[in-house]
Amino acid sequence: MSIKDVGAVSATQNMPDTTRQSKTIIFAGKEIVTESSIAVTFSAEALARGMEGHTPPTKEQIEETTRAVAATRNNNIAATTRGGPSLASAFYGDPATANDAVRFIDFFQHSTVAADDMANALHQAMTSPEVSGDYTTNAMDLALTQAKLNKVVQQYVSADYQQQASDFVAQFIREKADQADQQTRVVLTQAATLAQSLGDSGQAQHHQEAIAQLSAGTHASQTVRNEMLQLTASSKDSDVWFTQLNDRVNASPSLPYISEMEKSHISALQQQWQSFVNNVSAVK
Questions:
Q1: Exposure b/e, 146-167, CB count within 10 A at least 16 = b
Q2: What is d(CA 281, CA 284) in angstroms, rounded to the nearest whole number?
Q3: What is the secondary structure of 222-284 as a DSSP string?
Q4: Exposure of 120 by Cβ count < 10 A (0-12 exposed, 13-18 middle, 19+ buried)?
Q5: Which of its termini does the chain have fewer beta carbons within 10 Å around, N or C?
Q6: Tens digits of residue pLDDT in 202-253
Q7: Is 213 exposed, middle or buried (0-12, 13-18, 19+ CB in 10 A)?
Q8: Which helix (H) or strand (E) holds 38?
Q9: Any idea what the Cα angle at residue 246 is, between residues 243 and 248, rounded to 5°?
């Protein structure tokens, strides 16, 4: 502690108790006591001397100042209310979106619609049909999430923030792709370990090769995902997306039950997309 600090503390401690006040604020639902603040009392004579040479404000000036303060307060309240939706929103309550919800706070601060409308749109954009799937259907889901988030940016985000919002969406999608790769790596590593423990060196080697492909960015799950992300990034025509997705499944050598599952998933995605578009377009 410096000499200046010691002197300041000493001066405070020597003051009568009546001249020190604890200041308490509420943060995150808890009371926090800050540093003591100093209460200073002025005599009437001192106040009078301080006012010498200053003309008291007129009634009109006082009223104008009051109106200005009220306007500022109301604007701040409106901005705070607009800054986020109700915490009861599915956007915060659904496990599919709750963990990522806080990352979209800037969307609310640059929104052209009510906060709850933005929350509903983001929730729909970030949820996928709850049906069984494989890495191909997972790639479809991420591609449609990309398309829906981009539409939210185009229709619900103010023009001055759209570029930043678009950049955020691109980064968000990349992170989701990386997370998917990490999950695939864990599964492949566990499978390789199990095969090795069972003495199946051939299968263990197969899984190790798949892990190497994943590291190189050439694994089948990655190539399919990149293809589908490019589809929704390069075209805004949803009819083109779903036609190409169906054509891809038809041309795939997958087993019949896999193809049927993927076609069913495409149909569910198409219905979800249309519902999303209708809901977004209905908000003014």
A1: bbbbbbbbeebbeeebeeebee
A2: 8
A3: HHHHHHHHHHHHH---HHHHHHHHHHHHHH----HHHHHHHHHHHHHHHHHHHHHHHHHHH--
A4: buried
A5: C
A6: 999 999 999 999 999 999 999 999 999 999 998 889 999 999 999 999 999 9
A7: middle
A8: strand 37-38
A9: 110
Q: How would DSSP label each residue in 121-156? A: HHHHHT----S---HHHHHHHHHHHHHHHHHHHHHH
Picking from 238, 239, 261, 240, the residue whose alpha carbon sits closest to that of residue 249 is: 261
Q: Which residues pair with 32 in a beta bridge?
A: 25
User: pTM for this one?
Assistant: 0.70
Burial of 122 (0-12, 13-18, 19+ CB in 10 A): buried
SS3 category, 77? helix
| Nearest by Cα to 122 from 145, 88, 139, 140 | 145
Contact 125, 152 (CB under 8 A): yes
Q: Give the chain's length.
A: 284
